[in-house]
């Protein structure tokens, strides 16, 4: 039978992308129920070409639901994913609430699909978008060479901070547009765009070395997520990982510069071949012709794009590469949809 799906957070930035993805991908569901806060209840949204009325989040809304996706803030997931699971649904959660819970698998279908079957709490977590933007490509290289260490710098898009992040970036860009003198005196962009919004410094005409909240010893929550989630997904609890997460004035698509050290010696051409053959990865790597991924060329697409693949000049076991992935698609909605499809096969097979 075709399972019933609930999409919780259907009206948010990720939820909106999710409705598009559900309309494009193979239709494996019976009913699709759209759920949001009481404020959005009654709204009509289109999924699979049909208008669906949004229902308010309540325990009863999960009755008869087989799979419930959550694209909502951590505290909402923390409260409601267990309620959905209690009512019999498999909850696929895109928040940070359960990712590091040892009884909740953290799943990337191209990397660790079998983990989705072991879910003692009835909950499966979807990784953070920054981890997801690199892990499919790194998983392929790990299978070939054995990963030992990662040094990562992210270039994260504004939409990682939700619709508010997108709105604030556009509003700041409007405020600086046309002023050709800006960006040449310390603090002049800050004066022009003012304070407020999800970014702790102006994002227009700037980069901001911060995402998430402050954790111990100066690390940001985002940097710790990259470390902890990579370890869990790859099944490498001792993997050495150092990340520096940076926000850049890009609307959507996270990029990462990665220095990856392996157990075995690597070869540039062989590594490129591994990446080119990996499901979910596109090798886009011919710098002589200016072929490399950029966020603006990647946004709206599903795969992880990889370019600038080089063997380290100082370490024959290390590769340097540049990756881009749409943080709202593979980084959030698409991976959640792929996990839900894995679960859906349990109903249909
Ligand atoms: C960000 N990774 O980009 C976060 C969103 N989950 O801010």
From TrEMBL:
<protein>
    <recommendedName>
        <fullName>Aspartate-semialdehyde dehydrogenase</fullName>
        <ecNumber>1.2.1.11</ecNumber>
    </recommendedName>
</protein>
<feature type="active site" description="Proton acceptor">
    <location>
        <position position="254"/>
    </location>
</feature>
<keyword id="KW-0560">Oxidoreductase</keyword>
<dbReference type="InterPro" id="IPR000534">
    <property type="entry name" value="Semialdehyde_DH_NAD-bd"/>
</dbReference>
<feature type="binding site">
    <location>
        <position position="99"/>
    </location>
    <ligand>
        <name>phosphate</name>
    </ligand>
</feature>
<dbReference type="InterPro" id="IPR036291">
    <property type="entry name" value="NAD(P)-bd_dom_sf"/>
</dbReference>
<comment type="pathway">
    <text>Amino-acid biosynthesis; L-threonine biosynthesis; L-threonine from L-aspartate: step 2/5.</text>
</comment>
<feature type="active site" description="Acyl-thioester intermediate">
    <location>
        <position position="129"/>
    </location>
</feature>
<comment type="subunit">
    <text>Homodimer.</text>
</comment>
<feature type="binding site">
    <location>
        <position position="156"/>
    </location>
    <ligand>
        <name>substrate</name>
    </ligand>
</feature>
<keyword id="KW-0457">Lysine biosynthesis</keyword>
<keyword id="KW-0521">NADP</keyword>
<comment type="pathway">
    <text>Amino-acid biosynthesis; L-lysine biosynthesis via DAP pathway; (S)-tetrahydrodipicolinate from L-aspartate: step 2/4.</text>
</comment>
<feature type="binding site">
    <location>
        <begin position="159"/>
        <end position="160"/>
    </location>
    <ligand>
        <name>NADP(+)</name>
    </ligand>
</feature>
<feature type="binding site">
    <location>
        <begin position="39"/>
        <end position="40"/>
    </location>
    <ligand>
        <name>NADP(+)</name>
    </ligand>
</feature>
<feature type="binding site">
    <location>
        <begin position="11"/>
        <end position="14"/>
    </location>
    <ligand>
        <name>NADP(+)</name>
    </ligand>
</feature>
<dbReference type="InterPro" id="IPR005986">
    <property type="entry name" value="Asp_semialdehyde_DH_beta"/>
</dbReference>
<keyword id="KW-0028">Amino-acid biosynthesis</keyword>
<keyword id="KW-0791">Threonine biosynthesis</keyword>
<comment type="similarity">
    <text>Belongs to the aspartate-semialdehyde dehydrogenase family.</text>
</comment>
<keyword id="KW-0220">Diaminopimelate biosynthesis</keyword>
<dbReference type="InterPro" id="IPR012280">
    <property type="entry name" value="Semialdhyde_DH_dimer_dom"/>
</dbReference>
<dbReference type="Pfam" id="PF01118">
    <property type="entry name" value="Semialdhyde_dh"/>
</dbReference>
<dbReference type="InterPro" id="IPR012080">
    <property type="entry name" value="Asp_semialdehyde_DH"/>
</dbReference>
<dbReference type="Pfam" id="PF02774">
    <property type="entry name" value="Semialdhyde_dhC"/>
</dbReference>
<feature type="binding site">
    <location>
        <position position="247"/>
    </location>
    <ligand>
        <name>substrate</name>
    </ligand>
</feature>
<comment type="function">
    <text>Catalyzes the NADPH-dependent formation of L-aspartate-semialdehyde (L-ASA) by the reductive dephosphorylation of L-aspartyl-4-phosphate.</text>
</comment>
<keyword id="KW-0486">Methionine biosynthesis</keyword>
<feature type="binding site">
    <location>
        <position position="327"/>
    </location>
    <ligand>
        <name>NADP(+)</name>
    </ligand>
</feature>
<feature type="domain" description="Semialdehyde dehydrogenase NAD-binding">
    <location>
        <begin position="4"/>
        <end position="119"/>
    </location>
</feature>
């Amino acid at each position: 039978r075709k399972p019933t799906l609930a999409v919780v957070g259907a009206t948010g930035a990720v939820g909106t992308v999710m409705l598009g993805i559900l309309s494009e991908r193979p239709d494996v569901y019976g009913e699709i129920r759209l759920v949001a806060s009481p404020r959005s209840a009654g709204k009509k949204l289109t999924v699979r070409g049909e208008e669906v009325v949004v229902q308010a989040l309540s325990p009863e809304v999960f009755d008869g639901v087989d799979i419930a996706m959550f694209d909502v803030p951590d505290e909402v997931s923390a409260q409601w994913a267990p309620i959905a699971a209690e009512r019999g649904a498999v909850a696929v959660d895109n928040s940070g609430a359960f990712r590091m819970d040892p009884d909740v698998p953290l799943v990337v279908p191209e990397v660790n699909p079998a983990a989705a079957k072991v879910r003692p709490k009835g909950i499966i977590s979807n990784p953070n978008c920054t981890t997801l933007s690199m892990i499919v490509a790194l998983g392929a290289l790990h299978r070939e060479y054995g990963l030992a260490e990662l040094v990562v710098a992210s270039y994260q898009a504004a939409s990682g901070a939700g619709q508010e992040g997108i709105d604030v970036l556009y509003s700041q860009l409007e405020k600086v547009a046309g002023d050709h003198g800006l960006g040449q005196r310390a603090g002049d962009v800050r004066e022009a765009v003012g304070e407020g919004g999800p970014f702790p410094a102006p994002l227009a005409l700037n980069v901001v070395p911060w995402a998430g909240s402050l954790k111990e010893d100066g690390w940001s929550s985002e940097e710790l997520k990259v470390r902890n989630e990579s370890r869990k997904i790859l099944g490498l609890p001792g993997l050495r990982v150092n990340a520096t997460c940076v926000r850049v004035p890009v609307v959507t698509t996270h990029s990462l510069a990665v220095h990856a050290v392996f157990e075995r010696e690597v070869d540039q051409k062989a590594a490129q071949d591994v990446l080119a053959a990996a499901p979910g990865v596109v090798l886009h790597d011919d710098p002589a012709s200016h072929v490399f991924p950029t966020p603006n060329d990647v946004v709206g697409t599903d795969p992880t794009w990889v370019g600038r693949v080089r063997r380290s000049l100082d370490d024959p076991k290390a590769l340097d590469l540049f990756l881009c992935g749409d943080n709202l698609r593979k980084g959030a909605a698409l991976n959640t949809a792929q996990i839900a499809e894995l679960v859906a096969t349990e109903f249909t097979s």
